[in-house]
Structures
1.
Amino acid sequence: MQHDISKLMTGQWSTRKKENDVKEATKLPLLLSQAMEGRPITSRSEFLALPPEILTEIMALIANDKAALSTLALVNSDCRQLARSYQFVEVCFDYGPRSRKLLQRLVDEAQIRADAASGTPAPLFIGSCIRQVKVQPEPRHVAAAHKDLWAASSGDPNCILSQQQMDELRNNAAYKYLIKYRQPILKVLAEAMPHLDSLSWNDEMCLDIEAMRTLARLPLQNLEFSEAFVGVPFSLESPLVSHATKLQSLSLGISSCKEAMHAEGKPKKSKKLSSLISRFLQHNCESLESLTIKSSGKKAEKFRGHEAMSFPRLRYLDLASGTSYPDLAAWSSFLSAPLRHLSLPLNGLNTSKQYMADCPTFHDLETLVVPSLSMDMELAKPIADFVLQHSHVGKLSVQNSTPYLLDQHILPALASEQWSNLTSLSISWRYLANITSSDTQQTYTHIAAESLAAIARIKTLEQLCLSAGEAIDEAAGWRQFWLPDHDDLRLRLQGLDNLQKLAFSRDTYKIPDEIPFRDIESYYDDRWVTQAEFDDALSLPHFGPANQGRLRLRQRHGARAADSVDDDDVDDYGFEREDYEINVHVDVGNFAPNDKVWERAHLYRMLKEAEQYAMVLPNLKWVFCGQRPMSVEATAGSEEKIFKATPLTNERDTIGKILAPIFEMNGGN
C-alpha cells in the first residue's frame, strides 16, 4: 500500500505569489566563471571582460527583468550562461508543467555529466547556475496531474468508487508521484547541481531512508525541512556524508507519519525521531550557526540528545514552533553555545522549573522570545526570572502571558534604566473572558493603564507590538476580543519619539452602526455592511502609480443601474477589476454581507488610525492595525505636517504572519 497523495491536493490553491509572504529568498547568483564550470569565455565582448564586481553591479540592475535577461541570453553562449545564472539561481519544483519540464532537462543534464566523465564533450548546463532549490508541490498542480483521484477524493457525485477502486487509484497516483517526480528530484539534486548550497524541502509525502540519506549527503550550507514526515525508525549511519562541507543553517520540521502502513510494530514517536535528529546534530554541531527544531504535526514530539554535543558557532536557536523541551543532555549542549538569538520552546513547559533553574546568562544575547507564559506561577517564575536577567537584549518578545506577570513584574523592570538597549518589544496579554462592556453586554479585554505607562517610559523603543486575547487551543487559535481604544493609546504612547514601527495584533472592532446581536469576535468573519460601511468605502481615495483607474461605486434608487463597465477600470487597493453595485441610500437597518465593500471600508478606517498615530509619534513609518500593514509618511510641500498612510499588501494578514520576523525570530537571516 502506498501513501495517500490526495493530502497534497488540500490547502490553499494559489495562482500567484502572495503579497503577504514576508520571507524572500536572498538571491546571490554565481560569478560567470563559476557558472561556466571552468570553461573559457570565448566571446570578445568588452561587457563580459569587465571585472567581476562591476559586471555583478550591472547585472543587478536587470536581475528581476525577465525580458532583459531573455534578450541577453540570445546574444551568444557566454551571455546565455550569464543570463541563466540569474534566471535559475533559485528554482522551485511545484509539480507544475513548467517545473516538471525543467526537472526533465536537469535529468538529461545529469546523464550528460555522467557520459562526460568518460570523455564525451559537455555543453553548458542550467544546473550549474542553481544555488537554491525549494521542493513544494502546489495543490492545484497535484490535483491537475491526478484528476481522477482529485474527483474521487473531493466528493464528485459523478465519480463514486468502491474502496478497492479508491485504493488502486491512490496507489497508482503515489507510485507516479514518487517515480516520476521525487526520484528524479533526488537524482538531480545529487548529480546535476554542483553549486547547490540551499535546499528547502516542503513535501508532506513520507521520506524513506534512501531519500533521507540522499538529502543528508548533499554538500549544502542551508537545509530546511518543513512539513516533512518519516514513517519508519531509522538512523543515518556514520559517517553521514563523504564530503567536508557541513551545514551552517538547519531547520528540522520533521514529524512521524501517521498513515496506516506504519501502524504495525510502530515504536514510540520520540524514539523514532530522536536518532534521526541526533545524527543531524552530531554531524553538524561544530559548524551550525543557526538551528530551528519544530514539529510538522499537531502535537510536539520530544527529542533526545543521547550524548553531549558542542555548538561553538551556534548563534541562532529557535525551539518555539511546536516542540517540547529536549532532554537535559541536549538542553545542556544548547546552553553552552554562544547564543545571540534564542526562542524558548512553546510546549513542554510543565518541566520549565527543572530546565530554567540552572540556565546561564547569555551575555551576547540580542533577541529573546518567550512563546508562552500562561501557566502556574511556580512554573512561570523561573522563565520570567530568566527574561529579567537579560536586560542587555535589544529585542524581546513575551507572548501569551498572564496579566499579573507582565503588569507586576516584567514591564516595571523593562521601564528601568537597566534595559537601555531595548529597541524592540512585543507583548501579549492572555486575559480570561470575564470583563463586560456595560453598553453592549459583550465580552472584551483591555490593557492596564499602568502597563501602558511603563511601556511609554522605554524611550529607546523603535518598534512595538501590543496584543491581548484569550487562547482557546492550538487548533482554534486566539479569540479576538481586544477592542483597542486608539485615542487613549495615542495619548499614552505619544512620548515614544524613537518609535518607527507600531503593531496591534488580535485587535477587533465594533460595527459602526452597532447591530445589537453581533459578537465583536465575528467582526472579521461576518463583514456586515451598513450605511456606515458604504460611506467609508466611498471615502477611500484612489492613488498609486501602477493603477490609474478607479473603482465605480454605483448609486441606485430602487432600480438596477445600467451603466456600462470599462474593462480598464481597476482599483488601487488590490480589489478585483469589476464594477460594484451597492445601494448607498440604504436604510441603516437594511444590512447585508458584502465582502468587497466591507474590506474597503475597513481599510479606510485603519489608514485613518495610522495617520493619527503618525501625528503623535514623530518617527513613525510603519503601522500594523486591523490586520493591515501600512506605511506612513508626511506629505511633501505643506507647512503643517499632513500624514498619508498607504497599504502595503492587497489583502489582510489574518494570522499576523508578517509580524514574527519583525518582532520575534527572523529565520536566522
2.
Amino acid sequence: MAALGRVLPLLVRQPVSVVKRSISTSPRSLGGVYFEKDFFPGPYPKTEEERLKAAKKYGMQPEDYKPWENHDKWGSGDYPEIQPIGEDLKSEYEVWDDKSTKTNFNEPLPMREYHYTDRFDYGQDLYPSSDKEMRVVFFGMIGTFVLLHYFCNNFFARHDEALPKQFPFTYEGHGTYWHKSNIKRNIHYTFEPAEPAEGSE
C-alpha cells in the first residue's frame, strides 16, 4: 500500500495522452546519453603523470604516445599525434574488427581522418610534393606532347585527302601537310584572253 501511495500521485499528475510527452532533462532520464563534449580531448599533458594517464586513456603504450606539439593552434589537447596510414598499407592477414577500413575497436585515428575517407593509399609518397618535382613533372609532360606534335607533323607523311582539291589548283605531292616548296600546283585558270575558235569570225 505504501508503494501504491507513492505511485498514485505521479500517475495523476501525468497528462492522459499517448502522443504528447514532456522532455525530461534530469540526469536519471539521460542515463547513457553522450554529448559532443564527452568526446573532446583533455588538456595538454604537462607532466609525466598526465602523459601516462593520457596514454592509458587512448589505449597506447607510453613510449608510443606523443601529443601534438601545435595543440594551441589545432585545439588537439592530449589527443595523440598519429600519422595517417591507408588501408592498402595495412596487413590483410590480421583479424580486424572493421575489415572495410582495417581498424580495431577504440583504435585512435588521425586527427584529420575525415580528409582521407575516400582514399586507400594515403601515407605513401606516390605523388610529387616539392615545387621542384612538380615543375619537372609539368614541363616534362608538356614537352613530350610538343615534341610528338613536331615530329609527327614534320617527319611523318600524313594521309591524303579523300578527294583532290579542284579549285583553284590541285596538289601533286604526298599530302597537304608538306612544305609549300615541295608541292607542285596545277593551275586551272589564266588571265590571258581566250583565243578565238577557228571559223568563229
3.
Amino acid sequence: MAEEEKEKKLRFLKNSAFHFQTSCSEQARFLMWTHQSIADAKYTEERVCPYCFQCRLPENHRVRFKPKRRLTPQVQRVLNREAANRTLSLKQVKMLQKYKNSTSTMLVTCYSCNKTSRHSGVKRDFLAAFSHNPNAPNSRGKNIDAARTPKSAGKGSVSHIKSGAKGKSPATTPRSTSSRPATPSPSTKPIGVKKSPFSHLKMLLNLEQKQSSKKGGLQDFLCSL
C-alpha cells in the first residue's frame, strides 16, 4: 500500500508541475523539486532541467546536437579485418567497441541556471541491428516498396522475354502477320525499270538501223519494177 500511495503522489506532483509550467513556472519548479526529493533518483526526462527543475519551453533553453563518431580510415580497416574473420589486437578491439558504442548526444543549456545537461541517443550497433532486422517495420516497408517498384518489374519482364527468345529456334518462332497490304516503297522498284544511258543509246541505234533497212528495201523494190 505504501508503494502504491507513493506512486500516486509522484504522479500527481508530476502532472501538477506540467500543468503550471506556462502559468506559474516557480510553482512548477517547486512541485518538480518535491517530486525529486520523494523519488530519491536523478530526473532524466528531457522536458525538465535536472539541476533547477525548470520545465523546458521553446524560449527558456538552447539545444545542440553532437553527432556520432565518424568513420575514419583506421576504423574502416579494422572493420574490414573483422569482416574477414581475422584476429584483432587489444587496441583494435577497443577502437571497434568505441566506434560501435558511440551515440549522438543532445546538449541542452538552461537559461535559468546556465547549466548544460547531456542526453545520449541510441548506439550505432543497435541502429545497425535494427536496420538489418527483417521484422522491423521500416525494413519491411523498404522491402515491399522495392518489390513494387515498376523499374524492377520492367527489368524482370525484359529478362524473361530475352530468355524466352533465346530458347526458341528461328523456325519455331511465330511470324506476325499484318492485315494491311504491303505497299511497295519507291526504293523497292524492279531493276528493269531503271535503264542505264548505255542501254538507251543502244536502243536508238537499233531504231536507226531498222529505218535504214526499210528504206533500202523500198528502193530495191522500185528498181525491180
